[in-house]
Amino acid sequence: MATTLDRITPFKNEPVKSFADPADVAAMEAALEEVKASFGRFYPLVIDAERVETKKRIRSLNPAAPSEIVGETASASADDAQRAIDAAQRAFEGWREVPARERAEFLFKAAAAIRERRFLYDALLVYEVGKSWPEADADLAEAIDFLEFYGREMLRYAQPQPVTPIAGEENELVYIPLGVGAVIPPWNFAAAIMIGMSSAAIVAGNTVVLKPSSDSAIIAAWFVDLMHELGLPPGVLNFLPGSGSEIGDLIVAHPKVRFISFTGSKEVGLHINELAAKPEKGQRWIKRVVAEMGGKDAIIVAADADLDAAVEGVAVSAFGFQGQKCSACSRAIVEEPLYDAFLEKLRERVAKITVGDPSRRGTYMGPVINAKALETISKYIDVGKSEGRLVAGGKRREGDGYFLEPTVIADISPNARIAQEEIFGPVLAVIKARDFNDALAIANGTEFGLTGSVYTSDEKKIERATDEFFVGNLYFNRKSTGAMVGAHPFGGFNMSGTDSKAGGRDYLLLYLQAKTVSRKV
Ligand code: NAD
Fold this sequence. Notes:
Blueprint: H1 4-7, H2 22-37, E1 41-43, E2 45-47, E3 50-52, E4 57-62, E5 65-74, H3 78-95, H4 100-116, H5 118-129, H6 133-158, E6 169-177, E7 180-184, H7 192-203, E8 207-210, H8 217-229, E9 237-239, H9 244-253, E10 257-263, H10 266-277, E11 288-292, E12 297-301, H11 307-319, E13 329-335, H12 336-351, H13 371-387, E14 389-392, E15 407-410, H14 417-420, E16 427-433, H15 436-443, E17 448-449, E18 451-455, H16 459-468, E19 473-476, E20 493-494, E21 512-520
Parallel strand pairs: 1-5, 7-8, 7-10, 8-9, 10-11, 12-13, 12-18, 13-16, 15-16, 18-19
Antiparallel strand pairs: 2-3, 4-5, 6-21, 14-15, 17-20
Helix pairs in contact: 2-5, 3-9, 4-6, 5-6, 6-7, 11-12
Bound molecules: nicotinamide-adenine-dinucleotide.
Nicotinamide-adenine-dinucleotide (NAD) binds at residues 184-189, 193, 212-214, 244, 248-249, 252, 263-265, 268, 271-272, 292-295, 326, 422, 424, 450, 491-492, 496-497.
């Protein structure tokens, strides 16, 4: 007999648009106009599928033109947070009983609906977080991938699980959900990470209080509205934008919250982990914390590397989406014989990067996310100038938007601040290594362990780095960014997080618990 799984096609990654097709260009231009026409719209909280207005509001600004308000959301109070958790708890009692197949259908339907409205979502990402067209579409394609992948994964976990047969007993192991989860995403993969974490939690049978980043709350509002349009029961996905300090700690510490799924900075992740570890009165479990955090990712350029390929890989890894990816290359570690030639070619390559309004087709780098990021990154550039030699960039671009030049600082010591601290902007430190041993030691010499890449043609170096380069996602002869769901399960070691792998076959287990049932026969 055919099972549900037989009728589902194998998972395939959603193709990303290059915008070479004039029809895609025309559709994107129309979508940009349509989204611009909706600027300033207000999005209330959504608690139990009810829309709740608040006096206080959060403004989401266009970082390329901060006088433009992309949209406003309500800003939740402590009372709203309490009500959202109560609603999620009530909804859990019903949602946990909904068959996995039906829960998965919601994800497949959401993927199809987002695919249909793709250019509108792309356009919103351009305006809300400053992504170039291809970066926006890649973010959205990854969101679709998470929906398609986790839907299929839930069907797999709902199948009978293998246990060793024992005479005289019938044994089974089933995966059941955890309960109410707080989902706290960052702004940088405003679609993919927000949708990926929320959908994984929901498809596993949990209910969610989604507290989006204030810099990307509008796209989260769109997603929550979409899920309700598709018929998701009230209370399963609650939309709770608000300030981290006002409601963040309350949600994390709340005794009814069973798990926290967080992606963001090391500082906030560690704070959440600490807070969640302390049981509150009435709490009946140890909270599970999934925390995916920052990086200080390195690309090693070995003396035997293909120089042109290495320069290209470093440039796109360091400056794609303005270096605001947790996987961005922020350290290029170059073996001495290639160092000068590498720097010269990199300088020429970086000079070709276009910086400007990302709503214009062809812009490569847009603005950084907000005024605070502009200030922090600018301070790091000053620190870098005192720690090394400025080779490219270093300045803010004229105008209102938060534009920074792609910046390369060479002759950086492995322990310099800009070689150790996550900057999260378009700043690359270039470090000279004596040899490959030295390069590996430098690459491993931070508290992070997220992504890394090695350019080399030497099989022995590939073998050594495979064993010794301690990162969650290691690449050879390609960029350090652009992990694909299913193909490159993503997540890092050490201070980069709790070793989870988004888009991998273990991921849903983070939102499930296993129950063994044994019956004497
Ligand atoms: P952030 O830590 O500032 O914020 C992340 C989220 O936490 C936001 O929604 C924010 O509102 C919320 N928050 C802040 N204080 C809180 C509190 N006290 N309680 C509860 N929630 C609180 O990070 P960001 O600037 O949004 O994102 C950038 C960071 O995310 C970088 O460090 C980047 O490396 C990391 N990141 C990691 C991954 C990964 O997979 N490892 C992926 C993307 C981004």
